[in-house]
Write a structure and sequence with these properties.
Trna Endonuclease, Chain: A, domain 1; about 25% helix; alpha/beta; 8-stranded mixed β-sheet
Length: about 210
């Protein structure tokens, strides 16, 4: 498990715990305009002719995405706000994106992402990570309300990434990573409770 190796560019960040910059000017400054451009280009490519609603600076919402009390909109908006505050531009995708081959929650700086808000234990984290591997190549795990330590988070992700399909004592089959995963690589972005910076991980290095 190698933390911090092979970063993928995302957002307006430095080459440290928060990850590297996505786009730079000739003098090395990251441009929010470039992040916004890449996000919009991908949104238009994946959903041509779609009309997006700007809900906040750097955050756009599909009119076909539920926002009622029974939806996950509040949690997804919070995830978008965290990424936006680090310089990213986020498009919250339409609900029909959950059809086969289009299962992601959002587009972030041109990359498709699944958002998971986790307040539970290590088992919940492992389950949510594995579930995300059939939804999008990249996942943002918001653990700002979880009491899990950084070590516990990394251990859970490592265990899930290297899990094998097996049978329980009652004969039920529990699928491992290889039987769930549908993507070649990707990144995991973590927001840990009490930590100012985000943590970026390469899925294949877990």
């Amino acid at each position: 498990m190698t933390e911090g190796a092979n970063y993928v560019m995302l957002g307006n960040t430095d080459m440290n715990e928060t990850g590297p910059p996505k786009a730079e000017t000739q003098d090395g400054r990251v441009t929010g305009e470039e992040n916004a451009r890449k996000a919009r280009e991908t949104a238009d490519r994946l959903f041509p002719g779609h009309e997006w609603k700007k809900v906040e600076d750097g955050i756009h919402l599909s009119p076909h995405r539920p926002i009622g009390k029974k939806s996950n909109y509040k949690d997804e908006l919070r995830s978008a706000q965290i990424l936006r505050d680090f310089g990213s531009t986020v498009y919250l995708a339409p609900e029909r994106s959950r059809e086969k081959g289009k299962k992601h929650d959002a587009i972030v700086d041109g990359l498709v992402f699944e958002f998971k808000n986790i307040g539970g234990n290590a088992g919940t984290l492992a389950t949510m990570f594995l579930r995300s591997r059939s939804q999008a190549p990249n996942v943002f795990l918001n653990l700002e309300t979880s009491e899990l330590t950084r070590h516990e988070v990394m251990t859970a992700l490592h265990g899930a990434r290297n899990s094998k399909t097996h049978a329980t004592g009652k004969g039920a089959t529990v699928k491992g990573y290889a039987d769930i995963n549908q993507f070649d690589g990707g990144i995991v972005v973590l927001k840990l409770k009490g930590q100012e910076n985000l943590v970026y991980l390469n899925v294949n290095d877990l």
